Structure formats: C-alpha cells, structure tokens
Amino acid sequence: MLPEPTLTHRAEGGRDEPVLVWRLPEPVLAISSAVLGGGIGPCGWVVNASVPMSYDRDDPADHLTGIAAGLGLSGPGVGLLTGVNVADVVATEDGGVLLWATVGLGVPIRAAAPAVEAVPHVGTINVVAWVPVRLSAGALVNAVATITEAKAQAIRDLGWDATGTPTDAVCVLCPTETPGESHGAAYGGPRSTWGARLARAAYQAVLSGR
Questions:
Q1: Are the CB atoms for 32 and 78 separated by under 8 Å?
Q2: Strand, helix or coil at 154?
Q3: Which pLDDT tens digit goes with each residue over 187-203?
Q4: Lesser CB count within 10 Å: N end or C end of the chain?
Q5: Sign of the torsion formed by the C-alpha atoms of 94, 101, 206 and 30
Q6: pTM
Q7: What distances in angstroms separate CA 93 from CA 3, 101, 164, one per listed residue?
C-alpha cells in the first residue's frame, strides 16, 4: 500500500512553501503527465509542491529536481507543481484505490475552447492515485483518461462551465507486479473494476476540494 504523504516545507524566495512528499518503501510503476517524471516508468517518490500563483519560471523540471534533492530524494520520481496550498490536499479511498488531490480552480477552462495567448495566475488540479494491482500499459493510459473524465464531471457538477485548468496533472501508481499475473489488469476504463474505483475517488476528491 502506498504510504500517506508527509507535509513539509521549503524556504524559497523569502517564503515558507509547503510540499507534499510520498516516500515509497520500494519502487512502483507510474504513469504521469507531470513535467518531471512524466510518461510510464519506475518511481521511488512523488512530490507535489506549492508555488506562487505568479509562478513564471521556464525551467519547472529543473526546479522540481532541486526541490527533490533538497528533500533527500534521488533516483526516478514524479514532481508536480501547483499554485494552491498543498496542505489542503483531499484524500479519498474506494475499494483499495487511494487518491489525493490538490484542487485549484482559479482559471477554469473548457479543453476545446478557442486558444488564448497566455493564461495568467494559473490554478491547477493535481491528482496522485494508487491502484493496489499491476495495471497493463494500456490500462495505465486508460486510468489517466478515467480520472480526467471524473474530474471534469465533478467540475461541471460544481456549476463551472469547464473541464479543468490549463495545467492539471495526473500521476497513477501501481505495483511493478502482482503475484499470479504476468501482464497486469487489462482495463482502466470507468466500467472496469479498478477504473470505476478511480473514477469515484477522483470525483469525490475534486468535489470536496473546491
């Protein structure tokens, strides 16, 4: 089981900025859209770090690498940034699925809306989820889509004509192997066993984290 995150702080720019840290007892498999550690691969840690809403650095991956190093983290991991206070993280659970969301809806958008030149003061919804069985590569991709659909459903049910924010990120973690299964669970869609649990957990977390 994935351990609960630890809330810590870092000194940066004269401010005391909060950071959520998941220190994993052994490497797991991750899929993520994060700027640091994105894609599919092994993962030994996850950080979700608060930054000012005016954040405009053009090297977020390097920034996160420095944050991780300052926390004593090394090796492959996933790093997320958000303009909201990560101390306000919402944790949900559904049938063995664990999920944590930091919810910032400062700049809600519709994904297929007309393009804009720039988006100032971006808010972000970051989701970190744990599934206790190995998921196949296809199921991992589907799990990200399922969480995103559930997030959009929650946003609409909150009364926003939106699907998310421009900088939302997802990270789904699972064991590297499940005893007796050579390829992992094949499905992660919203009507699959694990996808349905992810959807319900994500929906409730975003709904509660508004």
A1: yes
A2: helix
A3: 999 999 999 999 999 99
A4: N
A5: negative
A6: 0.93
A7: 13, 12, 22
Please report where in the chains the tokens 């005016």 appear, as a residue: 54
Contacts of residue 128, defined as CB under 8 A and 6 or more positions apart, other chains included, come to 5, 22, 46, 48, 78, 80, 99, 100, 101, 171, 173
- Give pLDDT tens digits for 156-189: 999 999 999 889 999 999 999 866 566 678 999 9
With the CA atoms of 175, 179, 184 and 186 taken in that order, what torsion angle do they form, in degrees rounded to the nearest 10? -120
> Position of tokens 């499905």?
187
Q: CA–CA separation, 76 vs 58, rounded Å?
A: 22
Which residues make beta-bridge pairs with 6? Answer: 21
- Amino acid type, 58: D
DSSP letter for 8, please.
Answer: E
